[in-house]
Amino acid sequence: MLAAYSHVPLQVQVRSSATERVLSMMDRSNGYEGVAAQFLAGRGRAPSTGIGARAVRDWARTLPRGAAVVDLGCGSGLPITKVLVSEDLNVYAIDASPSLVEAFRCNFPETPVACESVEHSLFFGRMFDGVVAWGVIFLLLPEEQRRLIQRIADILVPGGRLLFTSCPEPLVWNDAMTGLESRSLGAAEYRRQLSAVGLSVISEYEDEGQNHYFDAFKTGPGESRPMTRA
Fold first, then answer.
1. What number is the average pLDDT over the span 180-194?
2. Domains of the chain, each with CATH number or no CATH
3. Is the dihedral of CA 13, 100, 210, 190 positive or negative?
4. In whole angstroms, how large is the CA radius of gyration of the chain?
C-alpha cells in the first residue's frame, strides 16, 4: 500500500490516516465494525476454553448465583459472555459494533444486549453486581477511560465487582486488528483512579494469553469485603 501511494504528498497521507481515525471514532466501535468479519472468524468464534475464559469463570464463581453482571465490549459473546451465562449469572451485554451485536443476538437470543459505546451507554438504566470489561478499556482515550471508571463505580452496588484487562505498565501500542492506538494508563494510575471512585483492587493476575487483570470491588457503608457465592 505504501508503494502504491508513494506519489501522494506526506501531508496528505497523514491527513488520510487522521481521517480514518475520526471515522473509526464516529462509528463508536473503535474500529471494530470495520474489521467485524475478521473478528468473527477468529476471536468471535472462541470456545469456552478460549483465552481469558478460565480467568473470567473463576471470577464469576465468586459472585452469588443470579447476580446481575454487564459485559462491556461483549463482541459476539464468545467466549466471555458464554462463561458468565454458564455460571448462572443474570447477564447483560453492550457493544458498539452493529455487526458484532447481530452475531451476539444469534448466539444469545435471550440475553439483553445494547448496541452502544461503553463510554456513552445508558447501562440499561439499572445497577449491577458485577462488571466485566475484557479487552476494551485500553481502546479508549485516557480521559474516556477515567470517565468510564467513574461511570462503572456509579452502576455498581456496594460490594459489587469489576474485572477488567489492561497492561500493568503505562504503554501505547497499535491494536493488532484495527491498527488504531491502544493505551494503558498503567497499574499505579488505574489503582489511583479506582480508589478515587470508591473501588478497591483485590488482586491482579495474568491469564495464559498474558492478559493482565484488575479485580476490584466497590466499598460502601458496612461493606468490608466483596460479595461472594453462597
1. 97
2. 10-218 (3.40.50.150)
3. positive
4. 18
Grid cell digits, residue 228: 461472594
CA 110 to chain centroid, in Å, comes to 21
Q: What is the DSSP string of 13-53?
A: HHHHHHHHHHHHHHTTSTTTTTTHHHHHHTGGG--TTSTTH
- C-alpha distances in angstroms, 136 versus 7, 62, 90, 168, 230? 37, 22, 21, 15, 30
How does pLDDT run across 93-131, given as a tens digit for each residue?
Answer: 999 999 999 999 999 999 999 999 999 999 999 999 999
Q: For the chain, how far is it from start to end, CA to CA, in angstroms?
A: 57
Contact of 84 with 69, CB cutoff 8 Å: yes
In angstroms, the CA 95 to CA 173 distance is 22
Percent of the chain with pLDDT over 90: 79
129's grid cell = 453486581
Mean pLDDT score of the chain, rounded to an integer?
88
| All cell numbers assigned to 52 | 481469558
Using DSSP's 3-state secondary structure scheme, residue 218 falls into strand
- 78/227 Cα distance (integer angstroms): 26
